Structure formats: structure tokens, C-alpha cells
């Protein structure tokens, strides 16, 4: 008997409860209106407990440690913050080819999830799921591996050495990456995350995560939010600085979407809906309002998220700082544009 049948699930489309298991996401299921619960606050959490470090390319934003994180959250929760999304930033933890520390039980993300649930139980906690912050090559998945045989002459013992590489066409090991991404997502869910949000853009990872959630008995209480229409954008620069996640070689154009590829974005949205996504995301936001409208037309009954990314944030902030416009008015206008185009919730 298959694992799916053991859990009385014959089809991924049977799973709905992951999309309304928490009061905050129930509000996301409602019609368009700008409210505090529509906003999700990104947090860069590190493996240095006492750190509170300014991010120069993201004005007003910092990297936080587990001991300093409550000082960020207390005033925000008092002001009505309802949800956060966590990004792990290893500073002292070594990186490797597979991002093995991404789901370390003692790592920053899992420990931050537990801390927030304990000290701020009213918050809805999402975890970004990607490997780029934890891999020594900075890519969002795993590289292909070739195995080379070496003979140790002195003791006549043969050993195999596995070396990673990116193919000449810029592609990653999609199968291996999906398996690893699903492992990380499940471990975040087991730690108590209300939502897992894979941002890697590997083909098939939504289905793999959804099936894993079903097998683990978590599909009815963990939201699966897909970065479905994530474009290979120049607006990610400050984030990569904040998360120390820029690729050490090559680029991400073979797995993130081309900026002019509206049709691919539509296909990715439809695919991820079919694979079990509870929420669809468009990223970046302002340059892709047409895609946001497409997302709402393709999935009228599913919450749509938009990520106002680091470059957009910095652009608005610096322009306001230079006196081009008033910061609050510009932010509100950008958010209202997202809502008009079809967004229910905003990350940024």
C-alpha cells in the first residue's frame, strides 16, 4: 500500500486544510483589502546569538541573532505584525556543496522558529526554503557530481572522491536538488513552522514537498507557499548581500525565469497549483504587475503573494531619503498597486 493511500489521500488536490489552518492565512483567503495581516516581515537570522548587524545595502534593516531577535519583534507585534518569514544567514557555520546545515536542528532557522513560537505564539511563522545561503557555491540547488577514483599508494586503499560542478549550460542537478529541498522543508515543518516557502525554482519541488507533508501527517497544518513566478532579476542585489548568498560563479538564469517570459511564468503558476501549492507568489513585484494579474486570473481561488524585493525596497527608501517623494505615500501607492493587480499578501 502506498504512503498516499495510508493517509487516505488519493490525490494532491484533496488537500485544502493547509491553506486555512491558521487565523492569519484564513484572512489571506478573503477578498482584496490592505490590512496589517497582509504584510509579512522578512527576517535575516544568523548563527551568532548576540548579533545585531546593520545591512548597508538595506537601509534600516539588520541581521539578527537569537538573543537579539526578540528586541526586533516586540515593538512590531505591538504595532500589529501578524506574520514573518525567516531567512537563515550562516556566519560562523561552514558551508558545503549540499547545504547540509540548512536544516541543522541547532541552526538559526529551526531555533528561531522555536523561539518565536514560544515567545510570540500569535505570530504566523514562515520559512524560506532554499540552499543558496548554505552552499559553498551559492546556488539555490545542488551541483552535479562526478566521481573520481584515487589510489592511496602507501596503504593500497582505494577511495572515491565526489566533486561538484555546474554544467556548461548553467543547469543544476534538479533531481538531487528537489530531494534536498524537500528534506529541508519537512524539517522546518517538523520544527513548528506554519508555512514553508521554497524559493529555489527547481522543477517539481512543490509536488515533492507536498507529498512529503502528506507522508509526515503535516499537510493539514502547514501551508505550502510557492515562489512560482520568480524571475532572474537585477533587483535581488541587496538581499544577496544581506544573506551572503550570491553565486560564487555563473548565474541563476537557467532556473529562475527570464524577465520577459510571461508564458513561462503562467505555465509555472499552473504547474505549482497542480502540484499542491496553497499560496502562489510573484517575485519581484513592481516590474511584474502584469504577471501578478495573470496569477490572479489563473488561480482566482488561491491567495496570491507578491515579494517587494530588496532592490525595490532600497530604491523607494533612497529616493525618499533624497526628497523625491514622501516614503509613506510611496510605500502605500506601491502596495495599493499590488492589491489592484491581484495580490492578497505582501512580503517585503
What does this structure look like?
The structure is a single chain. With 348 residues, the protein is an alpha/beta fold. 34% of the residues lie in helices and 20% in strands. Strands 1-4-5-8-9-10-11-12 form an 8-stranded parallel beta barrel, surrounded by 6 helices. β8, α6 and β9 form a beta-alpha-beta unit. α5 packs across α6 and α8 packs parallel to α9. The longest helix is centred in the middle third of the chain and has 18 residues. It is globular and about 55 Å long. 45% of the residues are buried.
Q: Which structural category fits the helices and strands?
A: alpha/beta
Helix and strand element order:
HHEEEHEHEEEHEHEHHEHEHHE
SS strand fraction? 15-25%
Work out the number of β strands: 12
Question: How would you sum up the major sheet?
Answer: 8 strands, parallel, barrel
Main-sheet strand order equals 1-4-5-8-9-10-11-12
The coarse silhouette is globular
Which runs of at least 5 residues are low in confidence (pLDDT < 50)? 141-166
Count of alpha/pi helices: 11
Mean of all residue-level pLDDT scores: 82
Structure described in brief:
The protein has 348 residues and is α/β, with parallel strands linked by helices. 34% of the residues lie in helices and 20% in strands. The chain has an 8-stranded parallel beta barrel, surrounded by 6 helices. Strands 6-7 form a two-stranded antiparallel ribbon.
Question: Topology, please?
Answer:
Blueprint: H1 3-6, H2 23-28, E1 39-46, E2 52-54, E3 62-64, H3 69-78, E4 83-89, H4 108-119, E5 124-129, E6 144-152, E7 157-165, H5 174-191, E8 195-198, H6 205-215, E9 223-230, H7 237-243, H8 262-274, E10 279-283, H9 289-298, E11 304-307, H10 310-321, H11 327-341, E12 345-347
Parallel strand pairs: 1-3, 1-4, 1-12, 4-5, 5-8, 8-9, 9-10, 10-11, 11-12
Antiparallel strand pairs: 2-3, 6-7
Amino acid at each position: 500500500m502506498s504512503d498516499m493511500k495510508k493517509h487516505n489521500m488519493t490525490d494532491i488536490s484533496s488537500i485544502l486544510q493547509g491553506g486555512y489552518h491558521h487565523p492569519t492565512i484564513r484572512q489571506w483567503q478573503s477578498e482584496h483589502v490592505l490590512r496589517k495581516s497582509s504584510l509579512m516581515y522578512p527576517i535575516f537570522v544568523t548563527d551568532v546569538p548576540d548579533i545585531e548587524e546593520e545591512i548597508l545595502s538595506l537601509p534600516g534593516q539588520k541581521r539578527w541573532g537569537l538573543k537579539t531577535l526578540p528586541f526586533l519583534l516586540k515593538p512590531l507585534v505591538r504595532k500589529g505584525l501578524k506574520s514573518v518569514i525567516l531567512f537563515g544567514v550562516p556566519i560562523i557555520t561552514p558551508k558545503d556543496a549540499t547545504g547540509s546545515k540548512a536544516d541543522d536542528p541547532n541552526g538559526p532557522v529551526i531555533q528561531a522558529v522555536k523561539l518565536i513560537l514560544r515567545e510570540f505564539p500569535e505570530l504566523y511563522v514562515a520559512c524560506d526554503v532554499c540552499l543558496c545561503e548554505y552552499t559553498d557555491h551559492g546556488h539555490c540547488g545542488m551541483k552535479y557530481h562526478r566521481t573520481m577514483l584515487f589510489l592511496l599508494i602507501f596503504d593500497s586503499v582505494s577511495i572515491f572522491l565526489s566533486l561538484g560542478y555546474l554544467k556548461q549550460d548553467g543547469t543544476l542537478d534538479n533531481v538531487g536538488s528537489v530531494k534536498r529541498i524537500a528534506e529541508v522543508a519537512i524539517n522546518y515543518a517538523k520544527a513548528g513552522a506554519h508555512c514553508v516557502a521554497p524559493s529555489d525554482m527547481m522543477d517539481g519541488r512543490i509536488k515533492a514537498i507536498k507529498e512529503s507533508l502528506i507522508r509526515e501527517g503535516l499537510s493539514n497544518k502547514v501551508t505550502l507557499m510557492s515562489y512560482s513566478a520568480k524571475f532572474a532579476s537585477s533587483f535581488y542585489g541587496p538581499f544577496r548581500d544581506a544573506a551572503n548568498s550570491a553565486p560564487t560563479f555563473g548565474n541563476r538564469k537557467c532556473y529562475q525565469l527570464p524577465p520577459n517570459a510571461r508564458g513561462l511564468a503562467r505555465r509555472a503558476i499552473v504547474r505549482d497549483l497542480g502540484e499542491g501549492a496553497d499560496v502562489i507568489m510573484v517575485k519581484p513585484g513592481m516590474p511584474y504587475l502584469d504577471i501578478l494579474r495573470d496569477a490572479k486570473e489563473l488561480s482566482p481561488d488561491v491567495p496570491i503573494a507578491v515579494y517587494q524585493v530588496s532592490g525595490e525596497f532600497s530604491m523607494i527608501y533612497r529616493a525618499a531619503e533624497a526628497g523625491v517623494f514622501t516614503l509613506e505615500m510611496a510605500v502605500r501607492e506601491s502596495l495599493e498597486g499590488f492589491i489592484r493587480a491581484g495580490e492578497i499578501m505582501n512580503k517585503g
